[in-house]
Design a protein that fits this description.
Layout: E1 3-7, H1 11-18, H2 21-30, E2 35-36, H3 37-44, H4 48-60, E3 64-69, E4 75-80, E5 84-88, E6 99-104, E7 111-121, E8 126-127, E9 146-159, E10 167-178, E11 190-196, E12 199-206, E13 210-211, E14 227-229, E15 231-238, E16 241-244, E17 247-250, E18 264-271, E19 281-284, E20 295-302
Parallel strand pairs: 1-5
Antiparallel strand pairs: 2-4, 3-4, 6-20, 7-8, 7-9, 9-18, 9-19, 10-15, 10-19, 10-20, 11-12, 11-18, 13-14, 15-16, 16-17
Length: 307
């Protein structure tokens, strides 16, 4: 999927170019395949000159491209350049003062205990052997863009970049998740738990395993009858306790995690074998699902200890 990602300032000209129903319809039509101006004008029942003016505006904005194709005399053929346009309302590249962000590929786990059904996919195809936990120990696992298992866990070690002599104020963990059902099933609850440095910080009950329509980023070779996308979830631990998407889930505070004690920060995600809802887990990388990110950790700290 070809994606154009823009800041608010960069999006201004794009929004102007798309702010007309004719131009929106041209982009929709070109999603079906390249066409020349005459073909677009006929499809939209517009005069040639009207179609040409609107195509030129889209081309100037960089939304579509035009190339000369030989054959029955040279002709200009128009095609869309992107499948999706993302406008960031905040500047993701801007680093907040006294904070840092680390993003790990989902296949970069260091330890696991996996129970089938299970498997790993790369952007190009199936990795190794499905329903065989041994596949999760192979070096190729690092290429995974989607991984799943029925119960157990995967454990990640994030590099510890907390400056010496500072106090951690907040830890945030974010990634795309859902349950793991045969093929997919919207009503398939699963209790997914997160541990940080060996301490359980909370459990989220995923409502289901989402499929039936393609995820924005999911490759076309992966059939829609299978898992397609998840929900973007955020665990946040600070001085007041632990939260999922802002909802309190446990009294565990950030001080209890002792994040300055080791050169790495351990994060484990999994489904307990004795959970009330043992419905498995799917973990999505930046090339699968609906959100173009891997496993993201953000830490905020203060230059001196809290009094």
């Amino acid at each position: 999927m070809r994606t154009l990602e823009l800041t608010l300032q960069e999006a201004l000209e794009i929004c102007k170019a798309l702010s007309h129903e004719h131009r929106m319809e041209i982009v929709r039509i070109l999603s079906e395949g390249p066409l020349n101006v005459n073909e677009i004008a006929d499809r939209m029942e517009l005069p040639f000159s009207t179609a040409a003016v609107n195509i030129k505006k889209l081309e100037d904005a960089g939304i579509i491209s035009t190339e000369i194709v030989p054959g029955r005399g040279s002709q200009k053929v128009n095609s869309k350049k992107y499948d999706r346009i993302i406008i960031n309302l905040t500047d993701r590249g801007k680093q907040e003062e006294n904070s840092f962000i680390v993003e790990l590929p989902i296949g970069d786990f260091v330890h696991c205990d996996i129970q089938p059904t299970c498997g790993l996919l790369s952007e190009e195809g199936i990795l190794l052997v499905q329903d065989d936990p041994r596949s999760f120990y192979e070096p190729e696992r690092k290429r995974a863009q989607l991984l799943w298992f029925r119960s157990g866990y995967v454990e990640y070690h994030f590099p510890n970049r907390i400056p010496y002599g500072t106090q951690v104020e907040e830890l945030e963990l974010s990634l795309e998740l859902c349950s793991e059902a045969p093929y997919h099933k919207l009503d398939w609850p699963s209790d997914i738990t997160c541990w940080v440095n060996g301490i359980e910080v909370g459990t989220w009950t995923s409502p289901g395993d989402f499929g039936g329509e393609r995820g924005f980023l999911t490759p076309s070779w992966w059939r829609t009858m299978n898992t397609q996308y998840g929900l973007l979830k955020s665990w946040r631990i600070n001085g007041e306790g632990s939260f999922i998407d802002g909802v309190p889930i446990s009294p565990v505070t950030v001080d209890e995690l002792a994040m300055l004690d080791k050169p790495y920060i351990s994060v484990r995600l999994g489904v307990k074998k004795n959970a009330a809802n043992v419905g498995g887990i799917n973990i999505f990388g930046r090339k699968f699902g609906n959100y173009e990110q891997d496993f993201l950790m953000k830490i905020k700290y203060s230059p001196r200890a809290r009094s």
